[in-house]
Amino acid sequence: MAELISGKVVSAACREKIKREVDAFKTERGYAPGLAVILVGNNPASEVYVRNKHKACLEVGITSYQIELPEETTEEELLKKIDELNGDACVHGILVQLPLPKHISEERIIEAISPKKDVDAFHPVNVGKITVGNYQFLPCTPAGIIELLDFYNVDVSGKSCAVIGRSNIVGKPMMLLLTEKNGTVTLCHSRTKNLSQITKSADILVVAIGKPKFVTADMVKDGAVVIDVGINRLPDGKLSGDVDFEGVEKKASMITPVPGGVGPMTITMLLRNTLTAAKQK
Ligand code: NDP
Hints:
Bound molecules: NADPH dihydro-nicotinamide-adenine-dinucleotide phosphate
Order of helices and strands: EHEHEHEHHHEHEHEEEEHEH
Strand content: 15-25%
CATH superfamily of the largest domain: NAD(P)-binding Rossmann-like Domain
Structural class: alpha/beta
CATH topology of the largest domain: Rossmann fold
Number of helices: 10
């Protein structure tokens, strides 16, 4: 049976450390790090994410500014708001909750955020910095995964790694970070041929595709470390990852559960990025 990689445990340890650092920051500077989160419209899932981010900020002593704009907000109005926040000395991090309503270009909005306040690390300047290995911020989900691997002493160096999913927010940066840790990485996607052949030879397998229980035990190498990023709502209301947990846990040496694996780490890394942004001011 695989050992559980608990995002709850690691996240709690990280948040305690962040809280101590925020306290020290406040004592030294006389103000708190500030994060502005913009929500446009009323997507129920986004509302939950924004609420959780707000709560997490308060817990560690970061000031959270929640900006809720109506669905019909225009791109120009949103750009103006971002411009205001870029110039606001109390705001060190800016996050625009995605997805945005269809009439607003996500690309234009992401590019409008000052790279120094881009705590999601989605701005092309920050993406470029990650590519050359000289960065201030890492995107929260891949950064959280690296934190989990470090905490559980998973040595990536020289290992064969497979990442399934090539999104800008998870798959692609994950490939870069595992490469930086000296893993040999294969990035897979929907056009990949012989997917199971690749996954079966992976010592470390990261799955981020958004398809419940897609990765089954026969696709996994004996003793592999399996990281499941997927969050899927099943018809019965339960949450499932992209990995068939019951089957794969019998074969893997370590595995993340869903919920309680990668999920808790994502917001924790957002808190850390906000503190980093504030320290650099
Ligand atoms: P996207 O929907 O942006 O991308 C999905 C990727 O999976 C694409 O690259 C796609 O390939 C690939 N894919 C789809 N089907 C297959 C297949 N049959 N075989 C191989 N590859 C396939 O995904 P995200 O990265 O945004 O999210 C992935 C999952 O992770 C979702 O469930 C999401 O909810 C979850 N998530 C969880 C987070 C957390 O904090 N735990 C944070 C972010 C996401 P192609 O490019 O060819 O289309």
